[in-house]
Amino acid sequence: MANNLPDEIVSEILSPALKVSDDAFSDTSGSKSSPFASYSESSSAFLLVSKAWLRVATPLLYHVVVLRSKAQASALDTALRTNPELGRFIKKLRVEGCYGPSMLKIIKCAPNVTDLFIHLSIWSSDNVAGLVRGLPLMNPTRLILSDELYRNRNKNSEVLLETVTQCIRQWTNLTVCDYPCNNDSLTSALKEARNLKTAIVSATRTWDLTQHLRLIVQNTSLKSIRLKDTGMSYYTPAVLYKQVIASAPGLSRLLEIPEDHAPISPGPPPSNPEPSSKSLQFSTTSVPEDVWKRILSFAVVLVPDAPGSRIRTKPRLGIVLVSKMFARLALPYFQEALIFRSPFEFDDFSARLDTMPSLRSQVRTLYLATGGAINLRPILPKTSLVNIIGTIPFNMTYKSFSDVGKHSGSSIVRLEGLAIAKGSALQKPSILSLFPNLRSLSLSIKAVFDVNSASIPAGTLPSLEELSFTAVDGTFLTVLTQLDLPRLRITKFEVQNTNIALFLGKHGSKLCTLSVSWMTVDSVNVFNLCPAMVDLTVHCGPSVPKGTRFTSSAYHTCLESISFKVNDYMRGPERKWGPFLKALSVVTFPALRGISLPCIRWPTTEHDIEKSSWVQAAEALLDRGVKLTNRNGGTWRRRLKR
User: Fold this and answer.
1) R_g of the chain computed on alpha carbons
2) Residue ranges of region Disordered (predicted)?
3) How far apart (Å, rounded) are the C-alpha atoms in residues 574 and 413?
4) DSSP for 321-366?
């Protein structure tokens, strides 16, 4: 059926995917933040779907051409020489550098260009000959100039600037010019432009803006002046427009002022529309309460479905104010999960359990948003708690932890965010047998256990799936090695402990997800101990692990991703991590598909790409089918090479 579609229909389908917005094409924020410095798949991939798509999409693809490297310019030059008809499709040309002799050939093959973008800040090593010789052959309708304000000019950039100013004076079709307002020669050229109708001026350099505008306004053909980037000025937009108008008599006639900055004239107050029967015809009385219950459950329930998922700790209390029905239906959901931010709130809740017996069976989850000073013991016999979660580390003694097990252990599913202090005596591990349904356990536990006491049953914690420690005493890990933990799949150690190797020796074969510190990776071969591991997270902080430790004695056929957690503000990350990535070998990880390193900042210009060790590492990994990603999930994509 798709093959029978007319070309016009196929063109309408592909246009949104291939269209380049004019805002992106005319963006002059600078080469460091070019809107086209992306790492997504090229839109040219649509042309490879079928011959019909190739035929229809080719004119759409060539309508707007963006050149960001010498390799792209060379490839376009080759394409235009092979098929000269393609050049006639080019209407907009954005050139973000100078790309050698290819530019002259491209310009000669593209006679229908109406919109031209040129970046004036270029490197001294750039070859401007092709562009300089080609510009006089053009006659665009709109010219957009981009420049970096605080960058010194070199010989090549001066030659390019001089050529542009000469062309502005000569181009007879030029009616719109968007320029940075930072160069006297450009301003003088615009004053002499023959048919210039609209000047779009950047307001970032406020101190000499009016001086340039006084020259531009002398162009008799000029019909309007538009200011952009007014939000980046030293003045508020309203003050800026007022100063500009006062600087030259003719500016008030030409300057376009947005409506939000124009003077507000008093007018009659807006009248309220008369209520109509049409606006009042909708009613919710016909909606069954069971439907509303389902809707409200999604709106107000705080407990996430999966352990470890994000917790919303701010209940939407405004819902109960909508109507009495909403208040009645939503109240049980609010009572199901309670948040305590102070001991006073908890004491009030404890008292309400005596005055409102029906509340006892409704409360399922406690969120403890306070560091401690709350005694859970009085409410434990009165409730059937399922989850106890500290949104910040909740300090408690091992005695309090034992009380939770004795009174609520059989119903508890999640214990997270608890910080158990170190006691004066050795603790008995038998309390763990009171949690048969516990699925997620997240602790900072400094209590020391008596590992020589009567052994704990191996079937203890039969439902445990996720285990996480922000701090842990080695004796507790020794206790866990005495258990079977048949359902354990996720384990997280944010700190180093010498007994982690013992723990992984016992349970590593079951783990699918492992999170450890870089010191653990350097001292223990986690890949040999965890043959079923799919995801590995390494907490590095300011340190860098040894690349040679990321290997396995045999092929690890399960590992798919490695993530590194580093400090947000690391100094010189490329210098520190470059040697690690260079030494990293992924030969023994045939299933590995991604490595995440948050400190990566992908280069966006051809000059920076050539020197970047990030790029070198990413392309070496791509040869092995592994993608290197940064904090935002941005993955490096290969560029054209000469």
Assistant:
1) 34
2) 259-281
3) 43
4) GS-HHHHHHHHHHHHHEEEESSHHHHHHHHHHHHH-THHHHH--EE
